[in-house]
Amino acid sequence: MPIILTLTVVVLGLISFITEWLPADITALSITVALMLLGLVTPEEGISGFSNPATVTVMAMFILSAGITKTGVIQVVRNWILRWAGDHPSQQIFVMGSIVGPISGFINNTAIVAIFLPIIEEWSKRKKISPSKLLIPLSYSTILGGLLTLIGTSTNILASGVSAQLGYGEFSVFQFTQLGLMVFIIGLTYLSLIAPKLLPNHLENNLMTEDYNLKDYVSEVVITPRSSLIGKTLQKTRIQRKFDLDVLEIIRDKQRFSQPLADKVLNAGDILVIRSSREELLKIRESKGLEILADIKFQEKSIEKAIASGEEKIAEVLILSNSRLIGTTLKELRFRQRYNATVLAIRRGSELVQGRLGKIPLRFGDLLLIQGPKQSFVGLQTTRELLVLEQKNVDVLRRKKAGIALGITTGVIMLAAFNIVPILVSALTGVVLMIMTGCLKPGEVYGSVRWDVIFLLAGLLPLGIAMNKSGATQWLAENLISLGGHLSGYWILLFFFIITSLLTEILSNNASVILMLPIAVEVAKTLDLNPYAFMYAVVFAASNSFMTPIGYQTNAMVYSPGGYKFFDFTKVGAPLSLLMMFAVPLLITFIYGL
């Protein structure tokens, strides 16, 4: 019965992960609650994930990555890319991958992508190439680079914790670096030589107003002398609610007034620059006192001219994975009032969301086209909710602290690498030093942690305990052996790599490790094979997530900025996944033996 109950919880959890009934971290927490209610784990075991060294280490590494980011250490490499990348796609990808990959071995790869997204976009504009030619390679390079060290990804750290639970001890910082380096070289070679032929060429013009089809639904209406709006403030007219539109600007005698506009009194002859659907424009046409200026369309040149001449600005903003904006609408957020800026358009992958923007629930990876005063974007650059896709102002970064942050991070790695102290202790020491030296402000610490990942890890770790206690792990291992025990060690290793890779694409890399690593070790023990070889196969397979934009966080981050379609990732990523599927088990067999 314990086995049946445990596997039932596992199956229900998998269904929730796949269907996305709940966010992944809430699903993981629900699994823990179910295990405790069914008596499969004790309350102490149920909350043990929050005190597990792997969970705390991952949290500390997020904070250390923020210290590196806030001090602008990585911005230094921008000049290297511009200097050496050249004009050939293969050279561009090779130079970019050679830089971001090794960095990802020591700093969280989602932070790397967040930093390099605006750099690559700006570089693409200079070179007059589409960002879609570079952003998928950017994501894949960071995924491959994360396999170079233990601290490259949260998955590696989690696997180290599971290994300790199973009695094999924690991994050292460079335990699988030899394998990771070979895999990275193979992956980068593919990305440089083959991927350029498969990558799409979206957003060729790369002009914001053309990319978002603003001409279709940003227009100008004039207030006629007979209008009932004359003498009233914009807020009191309530036209933004009545017509489901946003007033972006008011033009009066060639003078432009931008946000905030709520208290601006309207006069006859005022021109309102509005964002609305075509249907709403037709309603305005029928409204007394408002007329559409058919001959004064909101053209790309006029918006660029208006922005260049005044304090107005237009930019793309990405919704991050830890953003509290996810699941809410612009109307619920009172976005315009909160950020003093207006959302002109939303891009979701290759899909352009138009019309009733205020009523569309926002998702991770959505790209917002925002217009507002330049000062508003300074505030947006410092928020934890959004990422402005442009170079950060130097004033925002603590450049004088860059050397200190780099020294602290290097010290953390060295202390753990030479086994002077455990990685948990060195990482927490680094966190304290980041704050004491001013690399991070105390208020920035909590915002730098990906709490969804922390709750996901803490929620999933008790599942591994329940699988072992109930005997489910041993039962599954015995059945797998009965089916394929006659096969050679290589083919069994390949089987675990394939299954883990598939689970990673539909679940998450962390969930895949929790489920598959104990089973793989049990099979290896029973067949008298090398358990470390099987652990490495599961760890590397858990990061073999290249075929969809939803399997890995960095893929989702580049999905909308690149204007990609879902199957663009499959087209480029499937050959890479197949290459890894056969190369990694062979390399493991060659390096570590079976």
From TrEMBL:
One protein family per Pfam: TrkA_C
Membrane-protein topology: Multi-pass membrane protein
InterPro entries for this protein: Cit_transptr-like_dom, DASS-Related_Transporters, Na/sul_symport_CS, RCK_C, RCK_C_sf
Entry's transmembrane regions: 26-42, 54-73, 93-117, 138-159, 179-199, 404-437, 449-468, 480-500, 533-552, 572-592
Domain RCK C-terminal: 205-290, 301-389
Alphabetically ordered keywords of this record: Membrane, Repeat, Transmembrane, Transmembrane helix, Transport
Location(s), subcellular: Membrane
Location, primary (coarse class): membrane
Protein origin, superkingdom: Bacteria
Record-given protein name: SLC13 family permease
Species for this entry: Roseofilum halophilum BLCC-M91
